[in-house]
């Protein structure tokens, strides 16, 4: 199935075509509803430029494309019955994934993002433990490192010397990977596949490449868990916001907590000033999904590339996977 673009804006059309190519989605283009003819009802997804005059027949699967989220744009989107206004280029990753979900067959796994309120909050360890607990429960799991400046999730599982695909190998990707190719090429340990950055090959990733790879991953795995920096705007089915129980952590978390999608708040002790988890939740206007305290044996276990699957953090991850993070 294909996507239909209704727009008279050549720049907008070219941008959608680029994203569609990265997602291996076919698109057709029309300048108005008369030119679209039967494609308007048969397309899996209809992308309407804010420049398009007039109306289109009511149907599901309509997204309005715009350069800015203005009141007139939203009013027009409501008139057309659009499910969402996608502002480009800011929401390129969302649009690429939406096209893939609509136009490509096959089931999609869930994507969970883990974001630390600040550097050193423990997001990498949390994401790794979450992945290990999900794998112990029988899920096919991919752990994705999106923090190019971190120490590497592969290191936490002892995979830094294991051959396999890393992000630099995918930086020049055109089109979409086959799900089986991704499964066969990334290294894995303890039932968790890991896509990480290369320690000796830094690279900058284009948003459409990341979106394409993650959409492929969701077709290959039951669960895709990303270690996502605060400043990286990527969609997820659920986001876990990890906040140290301290004033600095709470202040740093406010920008994430105020986003459009409410994250699951998890706090981590110790609290050097006695800040209670409930006080953190009240300050961020979020319900508290869980709390755990620092465990003395964890740093030594991480040095041995053996994140523990017992203890307070592991029990919390298991509870979240069975509860708010469940499919």
TrEMBL record:
Gene Ontology CC: one annotated term: cytosol
InterPro entries, per database record: P-loop_NTPase, ParA/MinD_ATPase, Rv3660c, Rv3660c_N
One Gene Ontology MF term: ATP hydrolysis activity
Gene Ontology biological-process entries: negative regulation of cell division
Record domain Rv3660c-like CheY-like N-terminal: where: 8-103
Source organism superkingdom: Bacteria
Protein name: Secretion/DNA translocation related CpaE-like protein
Taxonomy of the source species: Bacteria, Bacillati, Actinomycetota, Actinomycetes, Streptosporangiales
């Amino acid at each position: 199935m294909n996507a239909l673009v209704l727009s008279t804006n050549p720049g907008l059309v070219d941008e959608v075509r680029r994203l569609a190519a990265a997602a291996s989605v076919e698109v057709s283009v029309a300048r108005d509803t008369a030119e679209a003819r039967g494609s308007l009802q048969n397309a899996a997804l209809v992308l309407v430029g804010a420049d398009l005059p007039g109306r289109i027949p009511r149907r599901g699967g309509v997204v309005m494309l715009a350069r800015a989220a203005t009141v007139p744009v939203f009013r027009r989107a409501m008139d057309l019955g659009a499910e969402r206004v996608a502002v480009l280029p800011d929401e390129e990753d969302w649009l690429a994934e939406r096209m893939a979900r609509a136009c490509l067959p096959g089931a999609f796994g869930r994507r969970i993002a883990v974001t630390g309120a600040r550097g050193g909050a423990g997001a990498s360890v949390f994401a790794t433990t979450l992945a290990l607990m999900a794998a112990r429960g029988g899920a096919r799991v991919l752990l994705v490192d999106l923090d190019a400046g971190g120490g590497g999730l592969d290191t936490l599982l002892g995979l830094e010397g294991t051959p396999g695909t890393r992000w630099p190998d995918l930086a020049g990707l055109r089109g979409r990977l086959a799900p089986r190719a991704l499964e066969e090429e990334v290294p894995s340990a303890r039932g968790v596949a890991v896509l990480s950055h290369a320690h000796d090959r830094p690279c900058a990733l284009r948003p459409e490449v990341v979106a394409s790879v993650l959409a492929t991953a969701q077709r290959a795995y039951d669960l895709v868990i990303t270690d996502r920096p605060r400043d990286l705007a990527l969609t997820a089915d659920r986001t876990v916001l990890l906040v140290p129980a301290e004033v600095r952590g709470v202040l740093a978390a406010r920008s994430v907590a105020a986003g459009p999608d409410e994250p699951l708040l998890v706090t981590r002790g110790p609290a050097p000033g006695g800040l209670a988890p409930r006080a953190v939740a009240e300050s961020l206007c979020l319900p508290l999904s869980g709390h755990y305290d620092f465990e003395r044996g964890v740093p030594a276990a991480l040095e041995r590339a053996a994140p523990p699957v017992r203890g307070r953090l592991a029990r919390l991850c298991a509870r979240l996977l069975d509860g708010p993070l469940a499919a």
